[in-house]
Amino acid sequence: MSASMPETKRDKRQGTTGATDPAAMQTVASYLKTDRGAVLPNLLEREVRDYGTGIVDKECFISPEYHKREVQMLWSRVWQLACLEQDIPHVGDYLEYVIADQSILVVRETPTQVRAFFNACRHRGNRLKVGCGSSRELRCSFHAWAWNLDGSVKDIPCRWDFPAVRDEDYKLPECRVGLWNGFVFINMDPNAEPLEDFLGPTLLRHFGEWPSLATRWKAIHVAKEMNCNWKVAIEAFVEAYHAFKVHPQWLNYAGDANTQYDAYGLHARFIVPLGVPSPHRTEPVSEQKIVESMVTTEFADPWSTDGAPLTIPTVPEGGRARDVLSDLRRAELLRRTGVDYSAASDAQMLDLIEYWVFPNVCIWAGEGAPLIYRARPNGNNPDSCIWETMVLVPVAEGQERPPAAPANFVPAHKSYVEGAPEMGRSAPVFDQDASNLARMQLGLHSQGFPGPMYGKYMEMNIRQFHYNLEQWLAKKTRTAR
Description:
Layout: E1 7-9, H1 28-34, E2 48-50, H2 59-62, H3 64-75, E3 80-84, E4 93-99, E5 102-108, E6 114-118, E7 132-134, E8 138-139, E9 146-147, E10 153-155, E11 174-180, E12 183-187, H4 195-209, E13 217-226, H5 230-235, H6 243-246, E14 260-264, E15 267-272, H7 287-295, H8 321-337, H9 346-350, E16 352-357, E17 361-365, E18 371-378, E19 381-393, E20 408-410, H10 416-419, H11 426-444, H12 460-480
Parallel strand pairs: 13-20
Antiparallel strand pairs: 1-2, 3-12, 4-5, 4-7, 5-6, 6-11, 8-9, 9-10, 11-12, 13-19, 14-15, 15-16, 16-17, 17-18, 18-19
Helix pairs in contact: 3-12, 7-8
């Protein structure tokens, strides 16, 4: 990758570029100044860095050798989201997390202790568990060797025939586990830094200001097979530059070119203001039209309504669509979940606020899109990946949380509309994105294409990611020698 050492500097435009003269466009900061409610301090922060303007070598997307480097130096040594704590709520619950050719078994040992084991029987290597379930022991389906939930040996049939086996030597090898905000992270490297150090002070402080995600309910989980590299998939969901072309329905109510991008060392964020028209629109849009467009699309999502018909509110004379829409969302959340957001800012209720946790997870804050994204390589095929979307719905204090939704696997040949009806009106939106990914992967193999030329600001977070990925792989390679 051709990228300069990142340079931190103030960006006076604060997230505006491209559609018209940047100086004529509003910024996220300017919208926040007129928002009602308590604007969280982290929304007022900016951190922009210069990652150069060079082309990124396409080999990182298509090369089997590059994939092997990632398996050895990234996936085996980085903190990564394995599951949510609510996926394994009871003692004995387990979930298999697969990354490339590695299978990790995440197990609830006690009400407060979670462990993660390399998922291979110490006898002949058979995978101990597949998928998810619950058991008070980890017993192999081949010869019935068994381990306790803490990884200690429980039973070896015909023990007399294995005189060289000592229990203390045949515990299940473990990964490191970190719990944060209702998430279970694992790391295969026993010498890895603590999860808190990996996340860094900025993310920890920011999410300390946002309402906790640990109490939310995972209502939807869709795992979609994509015919593209995992990096191609995640890059499509961390910038708003594509929105005016791929999602034309957003033009009336999404400030795509007004998006604010922030870089935090390994991690990143973007904020897309909603309830305002895109600067790509060539004609004015009335405040009432903004409301009508957004209510019939965004507010029809399964996490925004329980199926009851919504009445499109009227914008009062001289009023703002942004105020009306945020009030509607407050009312809907209160009616459906009992959670009161009367003190929350309009940005918290509406805007798309996404944090990208290196290397492959996006966590949305706020109430506008309560989503988690995750991209994983599909086995050892650099041209295939698993793209996951999870929806976390607020639960009122004192209300019992329903069981977490299991993953619905959608094969590559099926669309979201066909394979994930639980996504509701969002299914065709995800299909709009997915329609380009396989074509992009094919284009990366073209002999006439040297590699992507990312934008300096609107795709800054992608440039930051490639810079960090190369730095990570180089550092871990040196450490391994």
